[in-house]
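Lab notebook: predicted structure, single chain.

Context: the supervisor wants predicted structures on file for every construct in the current expression panel, including those that have not yet been purified. This is the next one on the list. No modifications to the sequence; it matches the entry in the shared construct table.
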Amino acid sequence: MAPNDSAETTGEATAVVRRRAARYIVPLAVAGVAAATIGLVPALADSGDPQLPKITAQELIEKIAASDEQQLSGTVKISTDLGIPSFGGLTDSLVPGAGASDSTSSAAPDAKLMELTSGTHTLRVAADGPDKQRLSILGEGSEYSLIHNGDEVWAYDSASNEVYHAQSDEAAPKGGKAKERTAPEGVPTTPRELAEQALALAGDTTSVTVDGTAQVAGRDAYQLLIKPRQSGSTVGSIRVAVDAENGVPLRFTLAPSGGGKAVVDAGFTKVDFSRPDTSFFSFTPPKGAKVTEADELEAEAKKDGAADKAQKDLSALEDFQGLDVIGEGWTTIAEIDVPGGAGLPAEGSGDVPAEAQQFLDALGDKVTGDFGSGTVFKTRLVNALMTDDGKVYIGAVTKDALVKAADTAK
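Prediction complete. Output recorded below exactly as produced.
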C-alpha cells in the first residue's frame, strides 16, 4: 500500500468447533475472544495531547513493524467486559476436560491466565529478549507470577503457596528431539501482540487512520484508529496508542459497535524500556511451598483417565462435516455442521446439567427465519446461532447478521 492517511486492513473471523454445541459453543467463543484480547488495557495516565510531527497511517504501521524493543518493564492494567454472566461453578459442565481430574495445581498457568478474560486486573511485566519474561497478576494480598527464564518455566501462586515447574528435556531421545516446554501461548507481556494481530489483516473492508495524539504512561504517542467499513460487525473500532519514539504499542482499546464501555481496554500505566534487573527472572520455591512438576500432572492425568477423556473430546472435532465460510472481512461467519444434525438438547432431556441449562438460557435468544428456528448465544463481541436442525453460525457479528447468513445458506 502507498503511504496515505487511510491504510486498509481486512478482518478475519476465527471459527471454533466442538461436538456438542450445548456444552462447547459458548465457552469456546469466550476462549476465542480471550486468545485475541489477553494482554491489553488502558493506561490511566493521559495528561493532554502532545504536539508531534505529522505521520500517515501507513508510516505509523511501518513504525510498529520496525520496532525492535526487546527489553522493558512496567505495570499494565487490563479490563475485559465480554458481557457474559459469571461462570460460577459451571466450568466442569461447560468446558471439555474440566473437572476430569483432581490432579492439578492452582499454580498451573492455563486456568490462571483465563481469569484475565473478565474483570479488571493489574499486572507487572518484564522482558529481556525472547528467553526471559515475567508476568505477575496482583491480587488483594496475593500475587501470581509466571517466569520464563531460558529453558525453565516457573509459576507461583502466593495465595495457595503452590509452585508449578516445567523444563525442557536436556537430552533428546534416541532418534528424536527434546521435548520443549515454554510458557503457554498468548501469555500477555505488552499490548503489542494484539495490535499486530489487528494490523496483520489487509484489504478494503477496514479504514485505518491516524486520529490525533495522546500521552500514555508518561510517553508521547500517536493514536491509530481502526474501523470496519462494513455494517453488521460487533466491532465498532480499535484504537492503538503507539509510542512516538520507538513504535511500541502502549495502549489498546476495542469498542463494540453497540456502544457502552470498551470490550477490552489494555495498556501501560508505567513503562521503562531499559534492561530489567536479572533478579526479575530468577525464582526459588519458597520454603514449605508445594511444587508440582508438569510431567507429574501429565502422568496423573494418564493414570486417572483424564488424558483419555480429553483426547476423546479433541477427536470429536473430526466428527464435524466440514467448515464453510460466509462473507468476508469483519462480517465473516463460520458455518459448521453438527454431527448427526443434532441441535440443542431439549430442556429437561437430562443431556445438560440444570445449572448449565440456566447459563445457556441466560445467553440465548430464540430466533426464527427462512432457515427455521434456533438459538443465538450472545456476548458483546462473538455471537453464535445454533439452529434446531444442527447447524452453527459463529462470528464477531450481530444477531441479525447471523440470521441473515443462515437464511442465505438455507
